[in-house]
Design brief:
Length: 87
């Protein structure tokens, strides 16, 4: 099967957004948590390191999933590969 230019663009955009979101995930999971003690300030009344470990990273993970789903739905429609909605 020969892939068209549209398929290549679709796949390249998919790889790009995945790489960006994985980089965000890495920074939130490892970098921010690792350096959180150095960032000694309070955030919503709690130490920042505690807040990132207990709540902040979970919120970011949900936002990553939400953003990826919206972006991929838009990309599917743009390239004509969206699935039909069942009623």
């Amino acid at each position: 099967m020969q892939l068209t230019e549209s398929h290549h663009q679709y796949w390249q955009k998919n790889l790009n957004i995945t790489a960006v979101l994985m980089a965000v995930w890495f920074v939130v999971t490892f970098a921010v948590s690792f350096f959180a003690r150095d960032l000694s300030f309070t955030f919503f009344g709690w130490p920042f390191s505690f807040w990132m470990a207990s709540q902040g990273s979970l919120i970011i993970y949900v936002l990553i999933i939400w953003f990826y789903a919206r972006y991929m739905n838009q990309l599917d429609q743009e390239h004509g590969v969206a699935e039909a909605e069942e009623e």
